[in-house]
Amino acid sequence: MRGRNNKLTQYDPGEFRRKLGTLTWLVFFAFTLLISRIWYLQVVKGETLRQRSKNNRIRLQEIKPLRGLILDARGKILVDNQPSFDISIIPEAAKDVESIIKKLAYVCDESNVKFFRDFSSLKNRRPFVPVKIKRNIGRDELAAVETNSLDLPGVIIDIIPVRKYIYGEMMSHILGYVGEISDIEISKDFYGQYRSGDITGKLGVEKQMDKYLKGVSGGEQIEVNVNGRKLNVLGRVEPVSGYNVMLTIDVELQKICWEAFQKKAGAVIVMDPRDGSILAMVSKPSFDPNLFNRGISNENWKKVLNNLLCPMQNKAISGQYPPGSTYKPFVAAAALEEGLITPDTKFYCDGTYMLGNRTYRCWKKHGHGEISLHRAIVESCDVYFYNVGKLLGVDKLAEYSKGFGFGKNTGIQFPGERGGLVPSKDWKLDKRKEPWQMGETISLSIGQGFVLLTPLQLIRAYCALANGGILYKPWLIKEITTGKGQIIKEFFPEVQSFIPVSKRNIEILNNALWGAVNEPHGTGGALRRKERDVCGKTGTAQVVGMPEDEEKPDMKEVSYQHRDHALFVCFAPYENPEVAVIVVVEHGGHGGSAAAPIARKIIDDFFKLKDKRNGFQSGGSTRLRRQSGKDRARSNEGLKNKD
User: Whole-model pTM above 0.85?
Assistant: First the structure.
């Protein structure tokens, strides 16, 4: 016992107290750190962490609005909306994004991960905002993703309304298409209220009327689980659909023009000369606007981009062509107004015209003989207009051409219009640093040389002849309405100016245009119809200049890109015209053989459609008043002495 006591008395209690004190300080220090951390997290970072926790449970989700409908003049839907399913991912919920992407690729049976994105480039995005990784998935992919949703944390399906262009290529140049706004567009003032990812119009009516069509986004406040799946809707603001836009276009007439033009390249416009409204507009070749709905593929984009016939260009408003003989009535109008010629003025045509040592040919090899203005327009005599052009001079002709609206935009409610070109002495000196030559005036007098017009400019000028001299601003937007039909904005005909031609001279020209279709040897004979009183003019525009001492070759022997453009412009009926048509066939050859038959089909079907809608048989009580060629000739003679 004594030994044990000795051992106990040998232990030093001071050493124990020192160890206990050290342990106590360590525990105190640990608790101090823990309390400090708790204070920091709850007090200093409390609000931030509470917000992050809330974001992890409650999220705001944007609801895209339905874009407004686009309708034709009779209320038929041209552009509708349909649902599209997109795959998005919330990186914070997915955590291992690359792993989830690989699972998604397996689930969707994709051998290569076509929807992979570099998420490192999205560091500045807001947390818990979904990132789009694949658009417009099919029903099978949708079912596969929903079935495997538990294995795909952070992956969600968005339902997005997309455009449905019901008539595809037939209406694409009028309607345009939509797409995601670009960084360049966002930087412009016009797009001040748009955000990245918004859908905006890219062409045609979709672009021009975008602010009315786009609508206002709504949103939902939703509660989600740990995998990002929606559990409950806590609040909702309904989106506001865009306004509907009604056009002046008649889709049935548009279809008639589309089918009549077949597979040729060029443009057709049908206009009402009484108010300048556009009833149909076709540009070929065309493109399918539905390809752009959710992003066009590289393959399809290359096909469009590499097509030498320019399917993305609306040739009706931006195609610039030499007008050929369709320009002759305006040359005649200028000479009549200046008193340089009268309806009785005659020139002799033997098939050639000499200017110095150069020979200019008429299209008719052996000439027209002695010919007056009326016959010169009816038979499209080039030599007659060579003489008239020389009398006028380029600057006077340019002055009158501008009076007909040539050389500048018409102001149509449409993006992409071009203004054409009306040359003058000053223009050539400024642009080419060369003086104007008389030979260039000779070419200009038959619509060749430097002059360039768009189909829209040309048909508008013919409409002014048809309606007595009024140049209307072309328009194709009729009204903007709510979904319930309440009119928000309405458009009306707008008179821009009056052509610088007297009523008497307009009547002289119109008689000649009637003769070009209805009289013997008229170049527009393809439009001659017993029941339709049509006035019109053919045109053939050279693409490549030919030496004056060489005969023009047969167009069938010339390569396609070097063939002449074919034009035809007409209006009907002679009294109180209701419709005007222009047809431009690129590299089509002669206007009378290539463009006029298309115009005839359109004119015939226009009146058949009208009779059908009015409940009459074609050629019945709506048959149009007409006169014989002899009666027209008498009328023309009577105009010579008219004030």
Answer: no
